[in-house]
């Protein structure tokens, strides 16, 4: 009887951990929504929902690229610096028109992604080290190009930052479209299957004849390009280029969204739906703390606690 009770308790604990990993992020979003509905004044206003959606859009776009990197058992710490670099390039080339400036900004992110991917795939540098180096270099280059805050006064960027379609902001539509695109790539394409295979076991992927090095480079290029797009979106929303602060700690927010969303740090799996919910969870958590007059430092502490819980759940499940 004792053995049966022990086995049943172990089974229940395993089931609870599985449910936490699979659906915990959605439950967290629901709890925060219910709390704010009940205790946060003016939370149920259209303007508030619009503000929340616009603020979460850049985080989500960065998290999509981070999910791909983590899916290969890597990480990209340079995403915040890429955002800063993209806002600097955007501001410098805006005189040629918003489309040209945006293209150059994205190309800057792609160049950083190529450097990250080359260091990881061909030189054999650990992803955390390679992207850390580009994080420092990218922010430094951004500040060399644009040493201080600069207002962005361009009709095209203003329309991007404040325009909408049937009440849905352009920034939200772009983020949603990118999420659907990345989800399609991960689930329905050969490249997506290769990403998961590499994350599951890189040596086995090589033995199977997969182009491991090429896939890794493309993954970090995608991460860099998406971070650059996020920088453009954030610049349009703020109507200013500020490489000093734009993207600061964005890597923390992106990793939190991905891990809380159910993508394990050990790679081999990418959950885009969970990543979207994770980004929303972070935004709601930040909003809740601010609305109830808690200092910003509590947001970082809360994110750290959420990461620990998510990693613990994934680790315990991996043991089984």
Q: How would you characterize this protein structure?
A:
This protein is mainly alpha-helical. It has one domain: Orthogonal Bundle (ABC transporter involved in vitamin B12 uptake, BtuC), CATH 1.10.3470. The protein has 13 helices and 4 strands. The chain has helices at 2-39, 46-71, 79-93, 98-123, 127-145, 155-162, 170-188, 190-200, 202-207, 212-238, 250-260, 272-291, 297-319; strands spanning 150-151, 164-165, 168-169, 240-241. The strands form 2 sheets. The protein has a two-stranded antiparallel sheet with strand order 1-4. The chain has a two-stranded antiparallel sheet with strand order 2-3. Strand 2 and strand 3 form a beta hairpin. Helix 12 (272-291) runs antiparallel to helix 13 (297-319). The longest helix has 38 residues, at 2-39. The two termini are 23 Å apart. Mean pLDDT is 88; it is low at 316-320.
Which descriptors apply to this entry?
two-stranded antiparallel sheet, ABC transporter involved in vitamin B12 uptake, BtuC, two-stranded antiparallel ribbon, 320 residues, mainly alpha, disordered C terminus, 13 helices, single chain
């Amino acid at each position: 009887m004792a053995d049966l009770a022990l086995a049943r308790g172990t089974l229940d604990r395993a089931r609870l951990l599985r449910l936490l990993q699979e659906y915990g992020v959605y439950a967290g979003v629901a709890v925060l929504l219910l709390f704010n509905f009940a205790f946060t004044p003016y939370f149920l206003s259209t303007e508030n929902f619009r503000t929340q959606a616009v603020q979460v859009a850049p985080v989500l776009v960065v998290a999509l690229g981070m999910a791909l990197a983590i899916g290969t058992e890597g990480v990209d710490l340079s995403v915040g610096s890429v955002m800063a670099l993209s806002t600097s390039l955007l501001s410098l080339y805006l005189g040629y028109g918003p489309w040209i400036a945006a293209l150059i900004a994205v190309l800057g992110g792609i160049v950083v992604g190529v450097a990250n991917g080359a260091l990881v795939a061909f030189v054999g540098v650990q992803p955390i080290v390679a992207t850390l180096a580009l994080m420092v270099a990218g922010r430094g280059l951004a500040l060399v190009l644009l040493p201080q805050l600069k207002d962005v006064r361009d009709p095209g960027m203003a329309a991007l930052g404040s325009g909408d379609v049937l009440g849905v902001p352009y920034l939200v539509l772009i983020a949603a479209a990118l999420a659907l695109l990345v989800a399609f790539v991960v689930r329905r394409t050969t490249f997506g299957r290769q990403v998961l295979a590499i994350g599951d076991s890189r040596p086995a992927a090589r033995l199977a004849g997969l182009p491991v090095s090429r896939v890794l480079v493309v993954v970090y290029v995608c991460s860099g390009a998406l971070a650059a797009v996020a920088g453009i979106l954030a610049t349009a929303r703020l109507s200013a280029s500020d490489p000093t602060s734009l993207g600061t700690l964005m890597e923390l927010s992106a990793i939190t969204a991905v891990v809380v969303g159910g993508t394990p740090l050990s790679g081999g799996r990418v959950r885009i739906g969970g990543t979207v919910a994770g980004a929303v969870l972070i935004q709601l958590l930040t909003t809740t703390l601010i609305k109830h007059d808690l200092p910003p430092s509590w947001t970082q502490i809360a994110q750290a606690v959420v990461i620990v819980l998510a990693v613990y759940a994934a680790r315990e499940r991996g043991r089984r």
